[in-house]
Amino acid sequence: MKPINIYTLTRISDAKSLERLERQMSFRSRAMKIKEWETEGLKAFCDRLMDVLESAYCLDFYYSFTMPKLGKEFDLLRVNDSTVVNVELKSGNVTDEAIKKQLIQNRYYLATLKKNAYFYTYISGDDRLIRLSNSGNLVEADWQELAELLLNQTDCYTGDIEDLFKEDTYLISPLSDPARFLRGEYFLTFQQRDIKKAILKNLEREGMLVQGFTGLPGTGKTLLLYDIALEMSKYDKVCVLHFGSHAAELEELDERLKRVDFYYCEAGRSIEVIGDYVAIFVDEGHRIDKTALEEIRKMSIRMKAPIIFSYDCEDAIEPYERSGYGAWLIEAVPGFVRFTLTNKIRLNSELSTFIHCVMRASGNHRRDYPSVYVGYASDEEEAGNLIRALNREGYVYIYDEAVNPLNAEQAAFDAIEAGESTCKEFERVVMLMDDSFIYGDDGYLRSKVSKGADDFRVKNIFHGLSRAKERVALVVLGNKQVFDALLWILQK
To answer: What's the domain count of the chain?
Structure first.
């Protein structure tokens, strides 16, 4: 998205023409709907600025920019090497408290640019210009002051503004990047913040409560869980029970956070904690079994502590393959309060759709998949060659020990075991599907040797592919039925 000349834009009164011109100037991928009061407010601001700055008709701003993934919108932005100027436009009927809250929030989000920032709000109905002071208070602003600020803002950035807001600068995983998490260098999406607020309010009102949130892989569950734990640790000690594979990262967090104790929990082993806590947080809850859940609930009763779960939504997986674990158990707890994260932070819609179709080869899947590769191998040597070729293109091989027939050559691959890949992120992922997989008459992917939820090969395909941010690949070894089903999915 490019900056536009707001003087040029506001010389047009016809709404449809204005929207088309704005798209042409800004290079948006799609036209935005501009309301009449927004047009009037923008024109009033532009005309008012012209009264004190003769060259105001030359000024370009990024208009109505929304930060990727976060959904945070800014009315007007102007950026150069050292400064950023933000102006919010209001028609009227807005309180000073609401204005202050928005500008402080804007300051919080724009801090990632690491520039001197100036924040204004113009209320066209009252012809009132306000700015946010360095101390976080609202003060009446002077138009001449704003004019001089804009006039001195030379050599402004004119490229795609999204390049200044790369997602990995503010959307992180506490386990992939514990140092940045500890420094607070991250943002929560609006949805994450709403769920956090609701959970904390429930705890204030109800006390000992079992609640949690779910969502597809890549929706920011771990970050939200750890952020809430951090918030609650301001008042007393809390613990985090992690059922994933990040022992080293947990140790770093445990050493640095004195009021949050982290416990690495392994399947089949008793959960042992030291001391009592005011809250119990459970990460990777989709991996817990009945025994672990019973232990956690007993701990909760003994400590009189609420439980907050974070767990993947596995609805895409065939029900029999996921019974007895995770959501199936957690959501059956009496009085459980569930929240759902729907905004995909890591995974894009193309990969998300494809992965769901792999789990069930039916339904609405007719679309292009430019970021998906599917290959067929008739023997292990061919499979190894295909995976090595993909390794050279930057794909990480996530393998399942129950499926992987290439153990003898494992050292030759850039590879990671499926259980070790939890909570990690990779640009590209390749996985292997052998003849132990089958598609049933209902379209669901199943394991031929499945013992229900005790066999994780279908789950591992789902979670492994979901580790990818950009591209996924599947190498099918000696399984024509599965290969044909995947080709059918890819045919538009």
So the answer is: 3
pLDDT at 405: 66
| Percent of the chain predicted with pLDDT > 90 | 58
424 is in which domain, residue-wise?
A: 349-490
Supply the mean pLDDT for the chain. 89
Question: How many whole angstroms separate alpha carbon 180 and alpha carbon 186?
Answer: 7
- Is the residue at 313 inside a domain? yes
pLDDT at 360 over 50: yes
The predicted model scores a pTM of: 0.78
Residue 217 has pLDDT above 90, yes or no: no
Domain end residue (candidates: 167, 199, 233): 167
DSSP state of 360: B
Whether residue 195 is found in the same domain as residue 297: yes
Residues 84 and 154 in one domain: yes
Helix (H, G, I), strand (E, B) or coil at 115: coil
Beta carbons within 8 Å of 164's beta carbon, 6+ residues apart: 79, 113, 157
Instruction: Using CA atoms of 96, 100, 102, 104 in order, give the dihedral in degrees to the nearest 10.
Output: 180
List pLDDT tens digits, range 415-464.
888 888 877 889 999 999 999 999 998 889 998 876 555 678 898 999 99
Predicted pLDDT of residue 408: 47
Q: What are phi and psi of 292, to 5 degrees?
A: -65, -40
Residues 287 and 362 in one domain: no
Q: Which two tokens stand for residue 200?
A: 């904390």
Within a domain: residue 185? yes
Q: What is the DSSP string of 380-418?
A: HHHHHHHHHHHHHTTEEEEE-TTT---GGGGGGS-EEEG
Does residue 299 sit within a domain?
A: yes
Q: For 144-168, write each residue's pLDDT tens digit.
A: 999 999 999 999 999 999 999 877 6
Element housing 328 (H / E): helix 327-330
Q: What angle do CA 24, 30, 36 make, to 5 degrees?
A: 75
Evaluate whether 285 touches 326 at the Cβ level (below 8 Å).
yes
> Do 203 and 96 have their domain in common?
no
- Look at residues 136, 167, 198 and tell me which one is the last residue of a structural domain: 167
Same domain, 148 and 8: yes
Q: What is the DSSP letter of 317?
A: S
299, pLDDT greater than 90: yes
Query: Which of the two residues, 237 and 409, has the higher pLDDT score?
Result: 237
Estimate to the nearest angstrom the gap between the alpha carbon of 145 and the chain centroid.
39
C-beta atoms surrounding 113 within 10 Å: 16
Q: Where are the alpha helices (DSSP H) in 27-119?
A: 36-52, 96-110
One DSSP character per residue, 128-180 reads EEEEE-TTS-EEEPPHHHHHHHHHT--S---S-GGGGS-GGGT---TTT-HHH
**CA–CA gap between residue 180 and residue 170 (Å, rounded):** 9
